Amino acid sequence: MTDRPKGRAPKGAPKKGAAPKRGAAQSPATPKRTYNADRTAALRKNRKDAIAHAKDMAQRMGVQPVDRKALPEDGQRLHVRIAHSGICSRRAAEKLILEGRVEVNGQMVAEMGIKVGEDDEIRVDGQVITTAKLYTVVLNKPLGVVTTLFDPQRRPTIVKYLPEYGVQLKPVGRLDIETEGLLVCTNDGELALRLAHPSYGVEKEYQAVVTGIPDEKALQKLRDGVFFDGRKSLPARVDVIHAEPKSNTTGLRITIHEGRKRQVRLMCELVGFPVISLKRIRYGSLYLKGMRSGECRLLGKKETDELRRMVGLSVN
């Protein structure tokens, strides 16, 4: 057997720097720190920072910070309780807490993550808050009305059509000013959040009148989804209600599971058949049938419970 030249690798051996062949034994790599470990470390640091912030805030204000050990571990988060009182949103409640404007049982709180029980007294700016009764209504929004509680341009808003229950009813999603029909409004923030989130797949059904008479190819494009704002719309259900060759218009029934801005209008425009008029006639299990334009009605317990079950919330 002849000696191989010095420095030459044996035949068949992998070249330096080449990836090992599939199935070849590899030396164990040094285990990397997992995402969960990084996240846990970050949460611990954030909690320490929050506790330090709370103590500093309490010292500057000359008050005693709340003792976490005296509060329940399985209660409701403080910012959620404040939001349920109807005075503000959850995000605004978090800001109130960090600003040192919230007290629990007479002690100031300035850190997130605090949980409270039913018997704990909560004060915001010195005023005791109570959990507001939850209301959910459906409104048949008229044309020319903006889906907002305040409009800086002073256009008509939905506020004039909402009943006065002593709480702030907020719209779930939006209907643009040129669209009429069924709009859900509630002060139940958790329900509103889930109804509006596309992951829960709540169906929204519209009646649209479009210019032109779409062929089957255009209808299938609507059903399969079209690209706009950088991503494709989810599959939709599209049916032809009527076609009017004389006026060159078509009535469509379109059911979607998302709530993207002006979605139905953009979908129709992108397949070449712009919308002339648009009306939402169903939202989940709720129908517009029998309601006059501008009419608003309070949902009963059976209807509200059905909405909550639809998005995985408990029913009292």
Write the SSE topology.
Layout: H1 35-61, E1 76-77, H2 78-84, H3 90-98, E2 102-104, E3 107-109, E4 115-116, E5 122-124, E6 127-128, E7 136-141, E8 170-171, E9 179-186, H4 189-196, E10 204-211, H5 216-224, E11 227-228, E12 231-232, E13 237-244, E14 249-256, H6 263-270, E15 275-283, E16 286-287, E17 296-298, H7 301-310
Parallel strand pairs: 9-15
Antiparallel strand pairs: 1-4, 2-3, 2-5, 5-6, 7-9, 7-17, 8-9, 10-14, 10-15, 11-12, 13-14, 15-16
Helix pairs in contact: 2-3
Q: Helical stretch count?
A: 7
> Mean pLDDT, nearest integer?
83
Class based on secondary structure composition and strand pairing: alpha+beta
Q: Any idea how many domains?
A: 2
Largest sheet: 9 strands, mixed
Question: What do we call the CATH homologous superfamily of the largest domain?
Answer: Pseudouridine synthase
CATH class identity of the largest domain: Alpha Beta
Q: Could you list the spans in which at least 5 consecutive residues all have pLDDT below 50?
A: 22-35
Give the overall shape: elongated
State the end-to-end distance: 87 Å
> Helical proportion?
10-25%
How many beta strands in the DSSP annotation? 17
The CATH topology name of the largest domain reads: Pseudouridine synthase
Strand proportion: 15-25%
Q: Name the CATH architecture of the largest domain.
A: 2-Layer Sandwich
**Element order: H for helix, E for strand:** HEHHEEEEEEEEHEHEEEEHEEEH
